[in-house]
Design brief:
single chain; alpha+beta; OB fold (Dihydrolipoamide Acetyltransferase, E2P); five-stranded mixed beta barrel; 2 helices; DUF1523 family protein; transmembrane; transmembrane helix; Phage_phiNM3_A0EWY4
């Protein structure tokens, strides 16, 4: 019976650590330089959602991010961030965005933008795809 308790304790500790790592992974902020290619307001169940489509400059990866207020992160400026994103898109300015979360196409999860700074430098011309 003692072996079963030990195995149960190991499983419980593993589950607790897994949940902790998952929460840290979700909440950990990432910052990168982007070129914004689209901003939109998406009608979803329960209201509207701001979305920003951008190209991450370090690897030319297209990313779709949501831009929602998050009371637990003290983020209440999604409309201002969306306005800055639209200005950057119109003027072809580079931006530095901080975002967090996970992206899942299957679950329709998007990273959430927590901060956006316009760098006021023009985005480089896109390279042609072969």
């Amino acid at each position: 019976m003692n072996a079963f308790k030990r195995i149960g304790a190991i499983i419980a500790i593993t589950l607790v650590l897994s949940v902790f790592v998952a929460l840290i992974s979700y909440q950990w902020p990432r910052t990168a330089t982007f070129r914004i290619v689209d901003t939109e307001v998406k009608r979803i169940e329960g209201g509207d959602q701001y979305r920003i489509t951008a190209i991450r400059q370090e690897d030319d990866k297209r990313m779709v991010l949501r831009n929602e207020d998050a009371w637990y992160r003290f983020k209440f400026d999604s409309a201002d961030i969306q306005g800055d994103a639209a200005i950057a898109e119109k003027n072809d300015f580079m931006v530095e965005m901080t975002y967090y979360g996970w992206r899942s196409n299957l679950m329709s999860w998007f990273w959430n933008v927590s901060d956006l700074d316009i760098l006021r430098e023009k985005a480089p011309a896109p390279t042609p795809q072969e």
